[in-house]
Amino acid sequence: MDKLPLDLPNFEPGWVWLVGGGPGDAGLLTLYGLHALRSADVLVYDALVGEDVLKMAREDCVLEYAGKRGGKPSSKQADISQRLIQLAKEGKRVLRLKGGDPFVFGRGGEEALALVEANVPFRVVPGISSGIGGLAYAGIPVTHRDCNSAVTFLTGHNASGIVPDNINWEGLAQGSPVIVIYMAIKHLGDIAQKLMTHGRSADEPVGIVSRASTPSQEVLETSLGCCVDDVAKSGIEPPALVVIGEVVRLRSGLDWMGAMNGRVLTSDPLNLSKNVDKVANA
């Protein structure tokens, strides 16, 4: 962290920093995030924080696990917030480290509001959301000029663990060319059926990215009509992202990680040159 062309903010005792740890690859951590890891007295971290990120913490920093994983024993949100308040009131430099970005399906807003109520000062350090960075590691861009100028991000389940009932599925299906869904594996069949009921094609490309940006990353390319069966056959497991739309087809040209392992990429994954030829010959 020496000779940086910026002044790093002081991490004061009694403060809580809500920091995004990125999708998993430690190299995607921000400079402010690294500074927080090297300054914190206590690190309260989520299940999705990469192990290599945790290794960057100060040697005498106390690590406390506060992960929340579907279907497994998890810390209650209210208890996590109270723990952050308690530690800050003890004069500790408290780092609340979350996978991805703390304000993107990370409950960072809930924790920050609890700190406000308790008069605990805090700072937010954004991180690279897995819905963007994780997909980029899979060679799937969330936007591409030849495919879409809009993208929708949503969660596959609400606070009760079921498919959100406050989503306008008809409007989503007909209005968003690309849909990125966090935590969707458990309810993928229900979600796919809702989208197809409201007009999405069963042949529409679907990409499923498990453990994005980590050495254990897996990518499944399938279609909306076959995704449930293909997930079951593949054995791919959460944590996983689901992306629906034509951008998934771009992976045959943008899978840069696959290319490092010998995959031959195509420069025209959308077959646009053929369409141009058809128009020219019409």
Automatic annotation (TrEMBL):
EC numbers listed for it are 2.1.1.107
**Name of protein:** uroporphyrinogen-III C-methyltransferase
Class of the enzyme per the UniProt entry, highest EC level: transferase
Q: Which UniProt keywords apply?
A: Cobalamin biosynthesis, Methyltransferase, Porphyrin biosynthesis, S-adenosyl-L-methionine, Transferase
Q: In which pathway does it act?
A: Porphyrin-containing compound metabolism; siroheme biosynthesis; precorrin-2 from uroporphyrinogen III: step 1/1; Cofactor biosynthesis; adenosylcobalamin biosynthesis; precorrin-2 from uroporphyrinogen III: step 1/1
Give the UniProt record's GO annotations in the biological process aspect: cobalamin biosynthetic process; methylation; siroheme biosynthetic process
Where in the numbering of this chain does the Tetrapyrrole methylase domain appear? 16-225
Q: Which family does it belong to?
A: Belongs to the precorrin methyltransferase family.
Q: In the record, what terms sit under GO molecular function?
A: uroporphyrin-III C-methyltransferase activity
Instruction: Give the Pfam families listed for this entry.
Output: TP_methylase
Check the record and name the Gene3D superfamilies matching this protein: Cobalt-precorrin-4 Transmethylase, Domain 1, Methyltransferase, Cobalt-precorrin-4 Transmethylase, Domain 2
UniProt cross-references to CDD domains, sorted A to Z: SUMT
Q: Does the keyword Ion transport apply?
A: no
